[in-house]
Every structure is written in structure tokens, then in C-alpha cells.
From TrEMBL, chains A, B, C, D:
Signal peptide: none annotated. This is 5-dehydro-2-deoxygluconokinase. One of its GO terms (molecular function) is 5-dehydro-2-deoxygluconokinase activity. NCBIfam families: myo_inos_iolC_N (TIGR04382). Keywords: ATP-binding, Kinase, Nucleotide-binding, Transferase. It catalyses: 5-dehydro-2-deoxy-D-gluconate + ATP = 6-phospho-5-dehydro-2-deoxy-D-gluconate + ADP + H(+). It comes from Sporosarcina soli. Belongs to the carbohydrate kinase PfkB family. Residues 12-313 form the Carbohydrate kinase PfkB domain. It comes from the Bacteria. Catalyzes the phosphorylation of 5-dehydro-2-deoxy-D-gluconate (2-deoxy-5-keto-D-gluconate or DKG) to 6-phospho-5-dehydro-2-deoxy-D-gluconate (DKGP). The keyword ATP-binding applies.
């Protein structure tokens, strides 16, 4: 099955949500307590997906709120530098800061992170800063779950989803669950379900779908039965090293394999997966091919130091797929 | 047209949201500054509707949070006393208080009110306190808009609506807009639209629909066109002394007249209207007849001192309709 | 011993802190749950003391913040009506409400109360609203402990005390401890001690001094030894029906008796005590005589329905003292 | 004049307040937006002073709250490593984070900083975590003004100062004013004055004393006249490159010169000044000599990359003084 998009749109993808700062350990093979130097990158799931998309040659835009400080200026300047339209990035006027993620690189299996997410600027994007005339220029609105964790960002997202539906923009919901900020598992499920039921495509790990359904050890079949009663017609459920599954409303099931690679750290895999998967869909590739694009992109990023700067080109992805074939 | 409900349910109506205290001026014809004595009643739109329904002989239940104090005990005891099932009313454990509404009775046209709504117990009902096994016992879930104004009550309502939809319980959305507590007009519209689109019946004034649509001077035709694209199949739009209109998805329009009466104060009209209108629908009456029930009930309550204690019986309503015919 | 004041001052007493609304049960001998009518009075310890002082013929002023609503206007109008200078009462501009105290009158021994103190206007008086030119017009600055419970009222009080000290205004600290609002017993003790150490006269119950000293079962002797190392030179410690003690830095001890009366309710006793005691001091009476004034005033107020409106005249107090002599 | 301390104490100095993380630009001569790598150090004025003191051979202790994360463990481990007693450092149990200060090193004159101070662990030290038995073991309690900016840290400091006074521990107040966190200039002045009036020694810049006195262009003479009416008997007022002045209650005035050096960045100067000045006082040196120690230490730290790790030894300080003599 191929997935259809509205061809007459200026932007391939507009992502909405957080754009933050990653501070990745410069020294390898040690816990963060002993890491003395950190390297700065742009981070945050929807920002990474926009960056990844732009590096793949898609026309990307971003809606979000950034601080009025040195970190905020770096974020906007970096994103603009890779070709993203930043005209709808709002500069916070109330002294809020960029979210931070410190990472250690202890071993390929162990990479603890330390997040600063209290009162960060991105969670203060509000509904009056989301504009219909911008959203309706896109083929895809990419929404990440973390932006639902708190008001007023939550209402900004709900409004954006409503506007996308009204204007025939495909809503892609990358579940991107992070425990920070959310107040309860019950409330998380309420908003995840509300947005998933209105989306066209949902992408997440098995654990993230369990969060959405407020259950443990959920089964893909139940998830698929439930969500296909609502708007979605394509669901991607990722099972880590066991690969990922794509389900269509027509009843098709596709399995994607993870590509083995020399892993430096694990973070960044999901965002690179999403950007390459969406790239392939937008380019009219078959879903099984899109799964390969996602896996290849993820395997490239986990072998490198950052989650954003390391996003691959189409050539790199295709080369890896060819080598592994 | 008659409206169909699931006959096999224990409760005719379960209302969810606030149950508060009204403190109505005992002395008439003076501003509140000069009012020295106040009489206590149960108040709050969904509580009033539950009380009104119970007085009309319906089996009613209530989901809400009340304080662990003298006012909370009065509320629960009064509601239980009129026959409401209070088993799902939760007692707050964190020292929160009952909402208060002081009223003056200056003249039939002028009755200013003074509300205490900061950190009130009813806005702290949370999603874990809303139970599927209870909601699925009802023919109707009655939701009032004010409960959406703030978390965690907001999430409790969103969950309740989701459970009602899942279990074939009709969702009746009484818009009940109050400016207190809401943070912005934009956000108000986001949540009102979200719930209205999922409801079966929506009841409100023209001004409340404008709030939902985030516009001014909205037209009934546009409202009807918009909402009938979603779940609702019956909309009631009230135009004050000019009467009210009921629209069905089948394209019918019914007009209801306001009954002239000796008005003591204006508050309480909407809740008495809703309870009698729903009573009539549940009893299988035609919609035009249900509009008469609503108007008659409203006209009785505005001639009396309270909004809850004054709720009429079926006989009083039918007598007024007969007299005015 | 007589107590000396600066004679050349326009105001006998300026009180600072809360002015609120009391809603006293109109019906006697029943719990609040069954009380259906409430009568409105001005309340709040420093407001009551200002009212009591004014009724005794003293020139009183008041510094505080009141809401911009019907209750706020009633408070200002009532206080102005009894002769208090209200020029330094600030009207809140952020929608905050008046504190409320509902009372029941169940029996002379049992009168539970229900307070609304969340985000009340009086706790939002801020330091920029306290003016040196006003405070320096007074013989006495009357401070009540409850105003220390939260910022910014806390800083307003600390500033006022500093200005009083700088301008030779006697600081009278009525401990007036209420558990609401305070976050911890430790913090309560920090601020009570800070202000008590800087005051000239401290008035409170034995239990309130224990709170100040962060101990249980404190002894008057220890309290006196501790506080006389700092600024105070007169301490009044009240032991309920066992009467009260006044201690001077010179080593004198005076005992005051409680006057037996027909008690209607217990609240209001402390404020009437303080206003009459201070009246007597200001009029140059001996301390033992001032203790009688305090006791007589308290015994009159507990036999009546309100705490403010019931404040006695000098004649009533002197008559009672004469009768009981 | 020499300054006397209680000789019979286990600790020379116990500092109380914040211990945070500095992230100093690794690359020089560029704005922070273009700085890609940051090096981690312990930071925060009282932590730096404790570290500086310990490196000078003093027995130092620290009271503060650190996060239960990688940064918190680094802070505690680093401070313990330089010889500080960390037994009264409390680990936060509510997910709060370490304060962060990102610095750029653009030029010796321009070094902008970017602070993360929202809801940081150090501001949540509370009064129940300050223990009399610990404080009374010290010759000096070193208090920094920033810890007064917010409750509950504010109350912890007020309690600590009260305990120090009660137990004959010298209170040294390093004004350390930072605009973050404080709500108003008026409130800042209230608390600065409250603590300064109770301290033995106050150290700050001319601008910081202006903040304390809530004035602009304050004169040293007025400051000295005001504070010597209260507890302080030694005041140090710093005038940047124009040097610093020490005033004693006996009327002495001493002037200290700044030592010229190759400046890398300006931050860290105040903390190194304070630790060396206090070291000299504790070692019984004359005040004019102590001023030299302060200046020499400051001039060493501003020529190096960090504010904590760069703290000099006694030998380095004495060598610089000798060279410059």
C-alpha cells in the first residue's frame, strides 16, 4: 500500500512541539558524574524529526516556543541553517528557558540522561500562537506526545490537530512518551487517546501504546482493533531489536527489521526512524520500503554522537539498505 | 421526532461536575453591599439539574468532589435527601472548599453575583475517580462546561465522555459557560469544541455557542452545519426572552416559547430548563413538547428564591403548560 | 507601671493586616450543616481591634488590602462608618476575594468555624503599599500574626515593623495564630520570633507563645526570660478562664481575672480584649487596670452575636467592672 | 584591628546556601551561541567560598540541598574531595535539579552568563534541615544573600542566623545579590536589611549595599552609620577596580587595592575574595592584611577557567602579595 498526501502544499511536513538543547558527554565510557565536558546540539523529538526531514530534502517548517537567550538563538539559527522554515517559532517573553538533556555515554547499552524540563519555554506555546493559515500549507502535521504533557502547550496541540483535520492535513502522531511533566498515568492516557483517535498515522513503541491504552502487556491486535475504529489508517508499532510492524486499516501487516550497527548510544533512534519513514511515504514508496528507510536511518544515528546533527542523507540511507540487502 | 435512549439502564441520568453552595440574599431589593443575611442552598449547574431531575421522578446519580467540611456534608446530605445516588461523590482529602455563589436580589433585572471558585473541591475531581462501571449504568451522562475549565476536573470529564461513548450512554452537554477559572477564550473554545463534537445533545445559549466557536454574533445555521458534521444529532440553542430552538440532524427545527411569569431573580433558569427538557425526552415526549417542559420549569424557578430547592414537580409544570395554553 | 507613648501623633493606633467577612449563624443551637441562614459582619483580628478601638473613642487607621467587589466595599464602608481612617486600605486589582469565616453557634462551648483563606486579598498586601509617612503618624502599630503567614503580606508586615521601629512607633504584636496558610510549624516559629523580638508589647495565649518558641508546654518564666533579652518590655500571656498575666521588663507581674458572663459564643474574645487593653494603656491607666478593661470587653463580646459590631463602649466596660468589683 | 573568634570550635567556617553546577565555555573568544563545548565545575557563591576556605587549609562545613541525580552526586563528591564536611548536605527527594550557570568567555570584559534557577534544589533547603548542634560547632556561619530569595530556603537561613547569634557564632553575610528569583526590589531590601542588621560582618559591592538600602547611589558613610546602629562591627564595601574599603565599629577605615592581572573572565572574583579575607581574619591577621589576601585571591581566580577549582593556596596568595609589594 502507498499512502496518499495532498500534493498541492508548500510544506511536506510541519512539526510542532519542543526544540531544546542536548548536552552530550564528550568523554565516552564513563558515568555522567565523571563526565567533565559536554557538547551542545539541538534536541527534542519534533525538532529532530524536522531536522532529519530537512536533511533528506523535504520542505519542513516548525511551530514552537524558544527562549529569548543564547540557547534559544542557537536553536533557531541551527534549524534555519539546515533549511527549516522558522517563521512560526515564537520567542518567549517571560524568561523561560530551553529544555536541557544531559547525556552520558557509558556503554552502548547504558546511557543515562538527566533532563531539565521545569517551566521550559516549549511547554508555553499557546493556542493563540498556532495559526490556521500556516498549518493548512502542509501535507503533514507532525505532533509529538510530550507537547501534550502540560497546559498551555497541550491546548496549542489540540488546536493544531483540529485545524489539520479541518484542512485535510495528515496528522502524524509520534507518541514520544517521556515520564517528566505528566501528572498521572490516567491523564496521560486521556490525552494520548484523544489525539491518537483523531490522527491519521500513529508511530510509537509497544510500551508507548500501552501508555495510551492505560494497560500493561498490551497486544498489537487489540491496539489495532481499537484505533482503526477511529481516524487512523496506518499504525507503526516498534518492538526494539525485534523490529517494527506497520498495520493498515485495509488489514495489511508489514514487518520491518532493525539493522545491526556499531552502537555508540541509543538515544536519537526514534526521531531518525520517523523522519526517514515519513520521507519514504511522502516520496510514494511502499510501506515495507518505508520501514527499511526508518530502520536504516535509526541505525546510522545510534552510531554517531548526536541526535540531530547526525541525521543522514538519502544517499547514506540507501547505501546502508543496499549493503544490508 | 422522539429521542431514543437505552432502556436497560439503572439510572436515567448521571450528572458530573460541580455541587456547590448558593448563598442567596434573604433581603430583597437592595445591592449585596447592603444585604446583611444570606440563605444557604445547594447550587452548581449539574447538581441543580440532578436535583431537578430527581424531583421530577427520574433516577439520578452524581459524580463530583465535595469538601470534607460542614458545607460538603450539607451538599451530600441534601442531594441524598431528594433521592440522588451519591455513592460516586468523592470527599476531598486536601482541605479544599466548596464553591460559593453569593447573590443579591436587587430587582428582577439586576441580580449581581459574587463567586468563590479559587481552588474549589469540585475542580479537583480527577480521572481516577471516574468509573466505567458506574457510567455504563446510565441512559444519560450530563456534562457541564464549567468542569472543563481546569485540570484535573477537565481530564475527569474527558475520561467520562470517552467512557459514555464507549458504553452507549447519551452524552448531554450543557454548555454552562462561566468566565471564572478559564485562562483564555482560545483555550475555552478548544475544550468546548472537543466535547461538543463528541456529544449527542448540546444545550446552551446563543452566546455560549459563540464561545464554543470562538466567534461573535454567530448564526444558528452555521453552528448547526458545523456540529452535525460530528456526533451530535440534537442541538438546543436558547435566545433568552425570544425563546429557544431545537435542531435535529434530520433537519427539523422546533421553536419553544418562554412563559411569562413574575420574576424574582434570573439565575437558575437554565438548570431548571435542562432538567425538565431531559425529563420529557426520557419520557418519550416529542421534542416540541420537551421545549414546553423546559420553558415551564424555568419560569417556575425564576419566580422563587433558590435554584435547587425551588425545582418543580411534574404536576406543577403540566399545570403551568395547561394554564398558558 | 504605666506605659508611655509618643503623645505627638495623629493616630492612637494603626492596625495592619486582614479585614474580612464573618458569616455568623443566624440560628442558634445547631451544627453548621443545619444552619440555613448567616448574618454578615466585618471580621479579622486587626480589623476587629481597629473597630473596637474606634468605638472606644481612639483615633484609628488601617492598612490592608480588600477585594474590588461587594464584600470589599462593605468592609471599607463599615470601617469608615465607625470612624476608622481607611485611606491606606488598598483595593486589590487582581480578582482576589475577601476571607470568609462561617460560624455555627451550637453551644457556648462548641462553635466550629469554617474559613475561606485561599488566595484572599488581605494576604496580597505588599511592601510597596506600606508607607513610612503614614506609619510615623501613629502611637501604636498593631500587627497580627496571621499576616505573616504568606508572602507578600509577610514582607509588608516586616517592612511596617522596621518603619515603626525607625520612627519611634510602639509595635504591639497580637500573636493571633491560625493554622491556615502556614506551611510548617518550624517556619511559623521563625517569623513569630523575628517579629516578637522586635516588638514592644506582645499579647497572646499561652498556646500561641508555645508556637512562637516552637515548643510544647512552655512556661511563662522561660518566655519572659527569652523575650526580655530583646526589644519587648511588656508581655501579656493569656490562660483562658484562668485569667491573664502581664509581665514588665522591670520585673513586675500582674494578674487579670476573667469576668463571668452569659456566653453565646467564644470567638471575638481576643480582639475585644486587645482593643480595650490598649485603650487603657493609651489613656495612661495602670497595667492592672488595663487588664480589667481587656477582660471586661472580652466578656461583653462573647455574650453577643458578632465580633466587630458588638464591640463595647467605654461606659459599658466601666459599668461591668464596677458591677463585678 | 584584629577580629576575634571563638577558638574552641571544630569548624572554622560553615557555609550555608547553594551548591550548583557551572558550565564554563571551553572555547574562548566567542559568544555563547557559538560555544559548542562546556566544562563542568562546582559553583555557587557559598560553595565556592567553602571550597576556597578548604583549599586554604581551613576546616569547612556546608549546609545545603542537592539533587538526587548525577549533578548532585558530583557536587557532593567534589566538595568532600577538597576536604569539606558534607554531613549536613541534604539530598532532595522531590526531583528538583541543580542550579546551572552557563558562561561564555567572549573577552575579559564581556562574559555573559545564562542561569537555570527555576525550582532548583538549593532553594528548597528548609528550616527543619538546619540543626543547632551543627551550627554551634563553628567559628563562622557564612550566609549568602541569594539563599534569601525564596521560601523555604529563606526560612532556613533566618533560622540559621538566629541559631548562630544564640550560640556565639560570627555571622558573615556575603550579599551576593542576583536578580533571579527575587520578586521585587522592595522585598529584597526587606530581607537583606533584616539579615544584615543581625550579622557581625557584611561583605558586598557598593551596588549590593544600595540594594539592601533600597536606594541608588548610596554613600558608604550613610551605610556605615546605619548598619553600625545594629549588630555589625565590620563592613567591607567593594568598589570594583577602585579597590575595597573595610570599616570597623571603632571608626577605623582601611583601603584595599585590586591587583592587576591577566584577566580571563570576571566571574568568581567575589567568592575567592571572601574566602581569603576570612582566612586572614581567622588567622589573626590585621584587617588591612586581610584586604590584601582577598584581592590577591580574586586576582588569581579571574585569570583561570573556573571559580571553584581555581581557588588558590596560601602560598600562591602570599607569593602574589610579595611580588606586587
Amino acid at each position: 500500500m502507498k499512502y496518499e498526501f495532498n500534493a498541492e502544499r508548500e510544506f511536506d511536513i510541519i512539526a510542532i512541539g519542543r526544540a531544546c538543547i542536548d548536552l552530550n558527554a564528550t568523554e565516552y565510557n564513563r558515568p555522567m558524574e565523571e563526565t567533565m565536558t559536554f557538547t551542545k546540539y539541538v534536541g527534542g523529538s519534533p525538532a529532530n524529526i524536522a531536522i532529519g526531514s530537512s536533511k533528506l530534502g523535504l520542505k519542513a517548517g516548525f511551530i514552537g516556543k524558544i527562549p529569548d537567550d543564547q540557547h534559544g538563538r542557537f536553536i533557531e539559527s541551527y534549524m534555519r541553517g539546515v533549511g527549516i522554515d522558522t517563521s512560526n517559532m515564537v520567542v518567549d517573553q517571560e524568561g523561560r528557558k530551553a529544555g536541557l538533556t544531559f547525556t552520558e555515554i557509558k556503554s552502548p547499552e547504558e546511557c543515562s540522561i538527566l533532563m531539565y524540563r521545569d517551566e521550559v519555554a516549549d511547554l508555553y506555546l499557546n493556542s493563540s500562537e498556532v495559526h490556521e493559515e500556516y498549518i493548512k500549507k502542509a501535507k503533514i502535521l507532525l505532533v509529538s506526545g510530550t507537547a501534550l504533557a502540560k497546559s498551555p502547550s497541550r491546548e496549542a496541540i489540540l488546536k493544531a490537530v483540529g485545524l489539520a483535520k479541518k484542512n485535510d492535513v495528515k496528522v502524524i502522531f509520534e507518541l514520544d512518551y517521556r515520564p517528566y511533566t505528566w501528572k498521572s498515568v490516567e491523564d496521560t492516557a486521556v490525552y494520548y487517546a484523544l489525539v491518537a483517535e483523531q490522527s491519521d498515522v500513529v508511530i510509537g513503541t509497544r510500551e508507548e501504546y500501552d501508555m495510551l491504552e492505560n494497560k500493561t502487556n498490551g497486544q498489537n491486535k487489540e491496539t489495532v482493533d481499537y484505533l482503526f475504529k477511529h481516524s487512523p489508517d496506518l499504525l507503526v508499532i516498534k518492538h526494539g531489536v525485534d523490529g517494527s510492524y506497520a498495520y493498515t486499516k485495509l488489514g495489511e501487516i508489514f514487518k520491518g527489521q532493525a539493522y545491526k550497527t556499531k552502537v555508540l548510544k541509543t538515544f536519537g533512534a526514534g526521531d531518525s526512524y520517523a523522519s526517514a519513514f515519513l520521507y519514504a511515504l511522502l516520496k510514494g514508496k511502499e510501506i515495507e520500503n518505508a520501514l527499511k528507510f526508518g530502520s536504516a536511518s535509526a541505525s546510522i544515528v545510534v552510531s554517531k554522537h548526536s541526535s540531530s546533527d547526525a541525521m543522514p542523507t538519502v544517499e547514506e540511507i540507501e547505501e546502508l539498505i543496499a549493503v544490508k540487502a
